[in-house]
């Protein structure tokens, strides 16, 4: 995979024409300064109208995913960094939910996560439980710059270390440190979603996917998909991402996603 990122314009037109599925992180990839812009939302609509499958792949909570799957112009959503997927079955008029862990395991972990969250907030001045923590089923999200003043890198690293000391998987997004019990990630749940819901083997068809992201928790997706794209603000984390995306947009955040959409549709 890419050791350096090339401009999006360098993606061969034939590769862009072959894209069937568009996957995208939400925070600072679809959203800009915490808001979903009209341009990014419209871009998702245009991609679906062009016959693409559109799936956000996010660290955001199950409660948000319920809304996203029902209300956004998407085909499904992967949430909590791969703990679950949801999709709305319009024919059956029902929301389909799929978790990596069973309900008993999730219930047992919730009390542990709450206690760990309290200890981390007490140990790292300036951090806080993420405002969306109450909507989470499986993980702990510690805010280091969404609703609190940005913390220095050493403080963020301390949060990661405290989670890991508890035996948790810890991943860094652009705004939160997310921690959970289990070995799943965004890629594993994406693989499950496409096999179960769409009958697509992503290992066999990875060239027909594009993934757009911006932060270290997107690293498994950047490494797996040859047409992975970073929006321009991915450069902020360039020293924390083991495998960079193959391409990078000129625009940041939602503008970068809209740029990717324009490029794909122009090549179609």
Low-confidence sequence ranges: none
Strand content: 15-25%
Average pLDDT metric: 97
Q: What oligomeric state do the depicted chains represent?
A: single chain
Largest sheet report: 6 strands, parallel
Bulk shape = globular
CATH architecture call of the largest domain: 3-Layer(aba) Sandwich
Distance between the termini: 25 Å
Along the chain, the helix and strand elements come as EHEEEHEHEEEHEEHEEHEHEEH
CATH class of the largest domain: Alpha Beta
CA radius of gyration:
18 Å
* CATH-defined topology of the largest domain: Rossmann fold
Structural class: alpha/beta
**Strand order in space, largest sheet:** 1-15-14-13-2-5
- The share of residues in helices is 25-40%
- Output the CATH homologous superfamily of the largest domain: HAD superfamily/HAD-like
Total strands: the figure is 15
Number of helices: 8
Number of domains: 2
Describe the structure.
The chain is an alpha/beta fold. The chain folds into two domains: 6-100 and 184-267, 3-Layer(aba) Sandwich (Rossmann fold), CATH 3.40.50.1000; 103-180, Alpha-Beta Plaits. Helix content is 35%, strand content 20%. The chain has helices at 13-17, 38-49, 62-71, 103-123, 153-165, 186-197, 219-224, 253-267; strands spanning 6-7, 21-24, 31-32, 35-36, 53-56, 77-79, 84-89, 94-99, 128-129, 140-143, 169-172, 176-180, 209-213, 229-230, 247-248. The strands form four sheets. A six-stranded parallel beta sheet has the order 1-15-14-13-2-5, covered by helices on one side. The chain has a four-stranded antiparallel beta sheet with strand order 9-10-12-11, with helices on one face. A three-stranded antiparallel beta sheet has the order 6-7-8, with helices on both faces. Strand 13, helix 7 (219-224) and strand 14 form a beta-alpha-beta unit. The longest helix has 21 residues, at 103-123. It is globular, with a radius of gyration of 18 Å. The model has no long low-confidence stretch (mean pLDDT 97).
């Amino acid at each position: 995979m890419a050791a350096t990122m090339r401009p999006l314009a360098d993606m061969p037109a034939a590769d862009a024409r072959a894209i069937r599925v568009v996957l995208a992180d939400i925070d600072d990839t679809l959203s800009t300064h915490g808001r979903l812009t009209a341009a990014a939302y419209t871009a998702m609509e245009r991609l679906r109208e062009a016959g693409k499958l559109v799936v956000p792949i996010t660290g955001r909570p199950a409660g948000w995913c319920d809304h996203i799957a029902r209300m956004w112009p998407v085909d499904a959503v992967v949430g909590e960094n791969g703990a679950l997927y949801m999709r709305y079955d319009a024919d059956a008029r029902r929301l389909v939910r799929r978790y990596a862990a069973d309900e008993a395991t999730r219930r047992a972990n919730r009390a542990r996560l709450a206690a760990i969250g309290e200890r981390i907030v007490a140990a790292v001045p300036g951090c806080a439980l993420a405002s969306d923590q109450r909507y989470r089923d499986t993980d702990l999200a510690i805010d280091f710059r969404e609703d609190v003043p940005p913390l220095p890198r050493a403080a963020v690293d301390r949060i990661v270390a405290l989670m890991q000391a508890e035996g948790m998987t810890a991943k860094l997004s652009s705004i939160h440190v997310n921690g959970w019990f289990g070995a799943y990630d965004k890629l594993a749940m994406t693989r499950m979603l496409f096999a179960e819901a769409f009958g697509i083997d992503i290992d066999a068809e990875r060239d027909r996917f594009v993934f757009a992201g911006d932060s270290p928790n997107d690293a498994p997706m950047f490494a797996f998909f040859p047409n992975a794209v970073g929006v321009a603000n991915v450069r902020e984390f360039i020293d924390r991402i083991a495998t960079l995306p193959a391409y990078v947009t000129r625009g940041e955040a939602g503008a970068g996603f809209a740029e990717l959409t324009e490029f794909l549709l122009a090549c179609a």
